[in-house]
Amino acid sequence: MLTDIQINELKKLCKENRKNVIEMVYSAQSGHIGGSLSSCEIMTVLFHKCMKHSPKGKLSENYQDRDRFVLSKGHVSPVYYSVLAQLGFIPKKELSSFRKLGTRLQGHPSLWCPGVEVATGSLGQGLSIACGIAISLKIDNNPANVFVLLGDGELQEGNVWEAFMQAPHRKLNNLIAIIDRNRLQIDGETEKVKPLDNLADKIKAFNWNVLEIDGHDILSIYSAIEQAKHSDLPTAIIANTIKGKGVSFMENNAGWHGKAPAKDDYEKAMLELI
After folding, report:
1. Domain span holding position 102
2. For FRET with 164, which of 73, 78, 98, 262 sits at 20 to 30 Å CA-CA?
3. Prediction pTM value
4. What's the domain count of the chain?
5. The domain spanning residue 188 has which CATH number?
6. Helix residue spans in the chain (DSSP H)
């Protein structure tokens, strides 16, 4: 269980991550703000409190036993890079190079960036990749877990559901999928583009352990992930979130899916995050 001090520290880290996301996308004049902000608490709690990782790479004692992470919704790389910088995988000053020519911080994660396990970006593929990693860990009797963060819009793709079918068949209780359920995608509301509800019942029907939480509540996120680690089944955590969370005029606005802020919007956003 997290203490009040730990929760407050995580809240501060979330605020820093939100500021970094806005700074990076504004500086590059390119990138995806909305989904980065909605997944901020998820990424912060997961990496800072729930995952075993190795910032020193192969020099780390626990390198082979490190937990693996797949960012299936690869376009929210800004929050990913911000968290990696907080943990020492990359220098914080490098965040200013986001989407610049020659940078390691590409618009979608690439293996050039320390801490990135899988190059992603083509939506709908991350869960299948995570299944493959989880299978290989089982074969090696490796105790590591595999975490994958999916957007809800990409659940409209068929190969996601093939992976949902494969994981329990292969008894992948080392696989934990977290769904950023912000109900918006580039074309608008998920339920108007292609309805997903009742999402929990659909995933349960594939024989997954399913938990549903407030994706902005730090303690709920932590408790769900720790509970998932002890399941006999693969676990899907449906994290109900708000796209653009933390910046009032970006919240629940599909227009901020992949738009860079102009100077006025940048300044307004940063004032709200003080």
Report:
1. 4-272
2. 78
3. 0.98
4. 1
5. 3.40.50.970
6. 4-28, 34-38, 40-45, 77-86, 126-139, 158-169, 190-193, 199-204, 218-228, 263-272
